[in-house]
Design goal:
This protein has 97 residues and is mostly helical. The chain has helices spanning 5-61, 64-75.
């Protein structure tokens, strides 16, 4: 069976429509992916800001200015005076026999 002119026309028309549909689908998918990437980047920036804030709060909470009053109030501890601090030295190892 030989293809006639109108059959070739419809075959080319179908191929062109399929190619155009593929281009439109690809662009739509890329727009969706770009939108998701933008949302992910903004969420990452927000989380990095929160992480920086939490690290700052941790550094502030673990400073001596915060810990000493808390230890004194909750546990009844106090800071050692200079006369109460002494060093314990480790004796040198015994020579082998």
């Amino acid at each position: 069976m030989k293809l006639r002119g109108r059959h070739l026309f419809f075959l080319w028309l179908f191929a062109a429509c399929a190619a155009l549909w593929l281009v439109i689908w690809r662009q739509t998918d890329s727009f969706r992916l770009a939108r998701a990437l933008t949302e992910t980047r903004s969420q990452r920036a927000i989380l990095q800001g929160r992480a920086g804030d939490l690290q700052r709060r941790i550094r502030a909470a673990t400073s001596r200015d915060q810990l000493i009053p808390r230890a004194a109030a909750r546990l009844g501890l106090r800071e050692a005076k200079d006369s109460e601090i002494f060093r314990i030295t480790v004796p040198p190892p015994a020579p082998p026999p």
